[in-house]
Amino acid sequence: MVSQVVAAADEKPQQQLLLSKKAGCNSHGQDSSYFLGWQEYEKNPFDLVSNPSGIIQMGLAENQLSFDLLEDWLEKNPHALGLRQEGNSGASVFRDLALFQDYHGLPAFKNALARFMSEQRGHRVVFEPSNIVLTAGATSANEALMFCLADQGDAFLIPTPYYPGFDRDLKWRTGAEIVPVHCSSADGFRVTRAALDDAYRRAQRQRLRVKGVLITNPSNPLGTTVPRADLEMIVGFVAANKGIHLISDEIYAGTAFSDEFVSALEIVAELDNPTDVSDRVHVVYSLSKDLGLPGFRVGAIYSSNAGVVSAATKMSSFGLVSSQTQYLLAALLGDKEFTKGYVAENKRRIKERHDQLVEGLREMGIGCLGSNAGLFCWVDMGHLMRSRSFAGEMELWKKVVFEVGLNISPGSSCHCREPGWFRVCFANMSAKTLDVAMERLRSFVESSSNVTRRAAAAAAVLPARSISCPLAIKWALRLTPSTADRKAER
Amino acid sequence: MVSQVVAAADEKPQQQLLLSKKAGCNSHGQDSSYFLGWQEYEKNPFDLVSNPSGIIQMGLAENQLSFDLLEDWLEKNPHALGLRQEGNSGASVFRDLALFQDYHGLPAFKNALARFMSEQRGHRVVFEPSNIVLTAGATSANEALMFCLADQGDAFLIPTPYYPGFDRDLKWRTGAEIVPVHCSSADGFRVTRAALDDAYRRAQRQRLRVKGVLITNPSNPLGTTVPRADLEMIVGFVAANKGIHLISDEIYAGTAFSDEFVSALEIVAELDNPTDVSDRVHVVYSLSKDLGLPGFRVGAIYSSNAGVVSAATKMSSFGLVSSQTQYLLAALLGDKEFTKGYVAENKRRIKERHDQLVEGLREMGIGCLGSNAGLFCWVDMGHLMRSRSFAGEMELWKKVVFEVGLNISPGSSCHCREPGWFRVCFANMSAKTLDVAMERLRSFVESSSNVTRRAAAAAAVLPARSISCPLAIKWALRLTPSTADRKAER
User: How confident is the model over A335-374, as pLDDT tens digits?
Assistant: First the structure.
């Protein structure tokens, strides 16, 4: 019998030396408050019936809104899960799939995925299946691209706020660096040319070689699509700097519920000389958000650069998509009628839930950045903080998690430079649960207001900035949503 | 529309500069003859009926021998593929699985996998599910372990011949180095203490920090289990060198068709002071060989080292196993009666096919290393080469691929230091196809003998060594297999 031996405490330092620096360091970022909030949730998860006083998970960008559509399709197409051919023969394809480990992927799946990606962009972009590299989720796609484009110590410029997982995905094993492009609420957190230039100069001062810009479009955590003009500016920046790439992470493309989603690839195609830049623009995609299938681990890199496709394909050996899953999704995405209906209905439901959150917040005087995509809102709670500082943000966050019972993500975990912003997810719960969350927050805001009023009366000498919040009010007024299409049963 | 732009040829050097050094270099090893043979096969694949003159793939270590057993089980257990609960309710678990992306894995699957791994070792090793890290195949498991244990430029000692993919899996993205432990036919390619010491000293002379030893047990490409005494010596070597680890890649554990398979973990448990070394021994496992499911991408790291488990678990984000596949395999491996019958019958079939190959080769005067596991034999064809050199090996290999129509793997691609050895796979084809392969080889050997005799008569001045081969004859005589259990229908 092998006994499971836990090393004595005094052996630990020596053990640490035994491992690599990567294993020992925490640049994987998993110890940030973003993940700590999850841990708290897991200790005491809310359930409408069995644990109504538990913590409500609003830190998880899951799309649970359209599973019934997927289940209906599975019911009608049992061959897809059953690993059988469609139609009368129904012959088993189990053997073929069990052995299928070609890292070029199942042709039927790549064709269907290419078409689905094109459909989401109004067929204004045509995706070549041979330019797709399949990966075990976007996490793996982003890391593989960094391995392809950056050497240890090279840098990518990334607009803030950005997805906390990037510190792990892009830096940890590759040794690449992230230089933040500081975006500000005064610009609605849009990426400006001045901010890009500033980040580039900062990288140069740090003697980092800049190898590219990475954007999320639609943005995580902002929930906004990148406007066409901004994309043109970013692509122009990349075009002008011959040594750099653009990674456009478009994993939320199918969640853009109003306005048109514009892909970086469209902007490139419209250039006078697209060949000059087309092999430096790479798109990351995934089915985790648009189809709500993170458990199935399906991601992709799309690139017209033959060198990137070749190297990334070889790297995909480290994270191939299960052939069982490729077969299922080839059938699902190959059903054009289904995908058309799904995409439209899924967007409608996301918008509805988004509006429920935004209106609820507005009623209690909390503003959000105006958003049109994603599974979350970017919420300004600065006026609820005792001071507009990161200490104040952390203090409020702990109250919201431990007292109010809502696990939301503080902006600081997303490297936001302005304290007071929080990412609040709305698509991973029922409308009823969202109501409970809103009600809890309303009580908290009201009690805070009472406390604040008492405190203000007791200490009128405090500077106004620390208790009032003109910025938040501005957002609250500007971003009042339409309530026309709210459903009654929520 | 985005046009798919292929860069003009003269732009390529500049493009290469744009990418990382890793993307540009070929240390992924994919351009070796091992992979080139595959490419030839893919151009003209053999089929008994539709392409009887095509190339027969004998370079692929697939296990196709027991699919009927898996298919029978799937037929009787439709809930597993259908993502439904077992029993009367048959409720769908699709939603839960779609969202399940906990990198700790599905508990039911980890429990079943731990039990299955224990079963393969006669329950002499107990595997703790919490010490298992799931990965998208053993490829990913091995790379993750290197990231955990070695910094850039650190080295692992690996006995030769070794699996050609290790150059990609262990070195490419991690920057780690492999120092070969030269094993020799004179020792039956067993790992000796002298060879380990020699490799260690060579590493020191190259100023490489040795971080461990990696063995495959059963060995790929030898098809042999590592004898208990050798394992004790290797574990002793690791125990004596406090700074190093042992990675024991046991992905062929379930193919050991005669004698008992002994895991490195058993040897550790039997030590006087196992705690001294137990956190430096790590096992890699996979379901690609023992269950024949490479397409499903299921691998695992097993370690008692909390630091390794923690870091590897975080790294597994880059290659998680699809939850759809975890659910299926939790049900399959959770069926104890099934796994017991499967493991026994699968081994019986592997032995039968192994014997068919070894006997066929013996009849034509070709010897193999005596083997008791794996899906391949390690075959000595030195006497068929015009000279016992690597040029001679490559010349023979090309003849065998292009003229004989068999894609086998030359020993040089496995870093074997003695020319003339080839890995020949036998479990990825029907018995009939193996017969065709044997018949082709027999014709080739006969015509070669005629040519050799004529050449010897015409040029009697040639040194005897280049046309005779006492070593091969020695093997051929020593390793004649029993034919008692060959079935008639092959």
Answer: 999 999 999 999 999 999 999 999 999 999 999 999 999 9
Is residue B85 located within the same domain as residue B74?
yes
Neighbour tally for A210: CB within 10 Å: 22
Q: Examine residue A223 and state whether it is found in any structural domain, yes or no.
A: yes
Please indicate, yes or no, whether residues B173 and B249 belong to a single structural domain of this protein. Answer: yes
Domain termination site, one of A338, A366, A381:
A338
Question: Which chain A residue is nearest to residue B146, measuring alpha carbons?
Answer: A20
Give per-residue pLDDT as tens, B437-455. 999 999 999 998 777 666 5
Does a structural domain hold residue A6? no
Has residue B111 got a pLDDT over 90? yes
In chain B, the residue whose alpha carbon lies closest to the alpha carbon of A2 is B269
B185-221 pLDDT tens trace: 999 999 999 999 999 999 999 999 999 999 999 999 9
Q: Kindly name the residue from B163, B200, B302, B327 that is annotated as catalytic.
A: B163
Instruction: Let me know if residue A4 belongs to a domain.
Output: no
Q: How many Å lie between the alpha carbon of B267 and the closest alpha carbon of chain A?
A: 9
Domain that holds residue A354: 23-66+345-459+468-489
Q: Is B473 a catalytic residue?
A: no
Distance from CA of B375 to the nearest CA of A (A): 14
Residue A279, domain CATH = 3.40.640.10
| Same-domain check for residues B175 and B313 | yes
Residue B467 falls in the annotated catalytic set: no
From CA B127, how far away is CA B129, in angstroms rounded?
6
Distance from CA of A75 to the nearest CA of B (A): 10
Q: Cβ separation of B95 and A67 shorter than 8 Å?
A: yes
The residue from B251, B267, B366, B408 that is catalytic is B251
For residue A376, the domain's CATH number is 3.90.1150.10
Residues B414 and B436 in one domain: yes
Same domain, A261 and A215: yes
Per CB-CB distance under 8 Å, the chain B contacts of A74 are 92, 94
**Chain B residues close to A26, C-beta within 8 Å:** none
Residue A123: closest CA among chain B residues belongs to which residue? B1
Between B448 and B150, whose confidence is greater? B150
A16 assigned to some structural domain: no
**Is A251 designated active site?**
yes
Q: What percent of chain B has pLDDT over 90?
A: 80
Nearest residue of chain A to residue B263 (CA atoms) = A2
Nearest to B322 among A71, A99, A297 (CB): A297
Kindly state whether residues A109 and A248 are assigned to the same domain: yes
Domain end among B338, B371, B390: B338
Nearest by CB: A295 against B16, B100, B311: B100
Active-site residue, A249 included: yes
Same domain, A48 and A135: no
Model confidence, pTM: 0.89
| pLDDT grade for A489, boundaries at 50, 70 and 90 | very low
Which H helix or E strand runs over A361? helix A336-363
Say whether both A74 and A85 belong to one domain. yes
